[in-house]
Design brief:
Layout lengths: L1 E5 L3 H13 L6 E5 L2 H11 L3 E4 L8 H10 L6 E5 L4 H10 L3 E4 L4 H12 L1
Parallel strand pairs: 1-2, 1-3, 3-4, 4-5
């Protein structure tokens, strides 16, 4: 399974990847993107099986990334891993086609509980 992790913080990308591995997804092939614009380019070129994105990033935010992907006809499964999880953000994410929004701080158990239903 090819997964794209987009976050402008290199440290946070590493934390997300480590947490995915701890959740049992150690067989996933993970590619990193430092912002939404880079993630869009990678999504076009690599056609990942899942995109995990931060919300607030330079160049292109996570919600802009998701909306652009959908506008271009890309139906790649998409989830947010972000520091904010307000009701408004969750509603925007749902309306744009996100599968889920995981708010920081998170654990391997939260990742498993949130992601596993979409893998079946």
């Amino acid at each position: 399974m090819r997964v794209l992790v987009a976050d402008d913080s290199r440290v946070m990308r590493q934390i997300v990847i480590r947490t995915l591995r701890q959740a049992g997804y150690d067989w996933w092939e993970i590619t990193e993107a430092p912002d939404g614009a880079a993630a869009l380019e990678l999504a076009i070129n690599m056609d990942p099986d899942l995109v995990l994105s931060d919300w607030n990033m330079p160049e292109m935010t996570g919600i802009e990334l998701l909306r652009t992907m959908r506008a271009q006809g890309m139906d790649i499964p998409f989830g947010f891993v972000t520091s904010e999880g307000s009701t408004e953000m969750r509603e925007q994410a749902d309306a744009a086609g996100a599968l889920f929004l995981i708010a920081k701080p998170f654990s391997a158990e939260v990742f498993r509980d949130t992601i596993d239903p979409f893998l079946a």
